[in-house]
Amino acid sequence: MPSNLDRLKAAYAAWNDTKGASREVWGALMADRFHLNHVDEHSPGLEFARDSCTREEALSYLAAIFDDWEMVHYTPETYVGDGDSIAMFGRCAFRHRKGREVAEMRMACLWRFEGDKAVSMVEIVDSAVAMRVAMAA
User: Fold this and answer.
1) Are strands 30-38 and 102-114 parallel, antiparallel or unpaired?
2) What's the distance, CA 21 to chain centroid?
3) Using one digit for the tens of pLDDT, what is the confidence trace for 77-114?
4) What is the DSSP string of 28-55?
5) pLDDT over threshold 90, residue 31
């Protein structure tokens, strides 16, 4: 069976390759009780970034991103850890659907697993860039 790190790398690769159309890979990775926390919750222009407590809420968040944004890329650069705790550091870029401007951001995602299921993730994104683009649109 692939390790949690291998499964996480595969999920990020699918996320980038499909430009966000692969939400089912995240659903398969998450436990039913999955906590998603955002550092920029309640940021203007990024109202979709809400904390969640279930897999369904987290998947709804992933779908809501694409109401106003289209993915340009989602590029993990470094993974730290293995087993139950894994941090992914990388870059992502999204184009705002109205203004067409691209927000290129640094990010970190801090994952925690229990067995073979992800039970939480904290998402830290350079939201100032995304807020500026969203508010300009």
Assistant:
1) unpaired
2) 13
3) 999 998 899 999 999 999 999 999 999 999 999 999 99
4) HHEEEEEEEEETTTT-TT-TT---BSSH
5) yes
In angstroms, rounded to a whole number, what is the distance separating the alpha carbons of residues 81 and 109?
A: 12
- What span, in angstroms and rounded, lies between the C-alpha atoms of 126 and 50? 16
Put the strands of the sheet holding 85-96 in their side by side order.
30-38, 117-125, 102-114, 85-96, 69-82
- Residues 120/111, Cβ–Cβ less than 8 Å: yes
Query: In the chain, how many domains are there?
Result: 1
| Distance of alpha carbon 48 from alpha carbon 91, whole angstroms | 19
State the pLDDT confidence band at 50, using cuts at 50, 70 and 90.
Answer: confident
Q: In CATH, what number is assigned to the domain containing residue 111?
A: 3.10.450.50
- What residue numbers bound the domain in which 78 lies? 4-136
Asked if 112 and 85 count as a contact pair (C-beta separation under 8 A), the reply is yes
Q: Which residue in 81, 91, 76 sits closest to 14, CA to CA?
A: 76
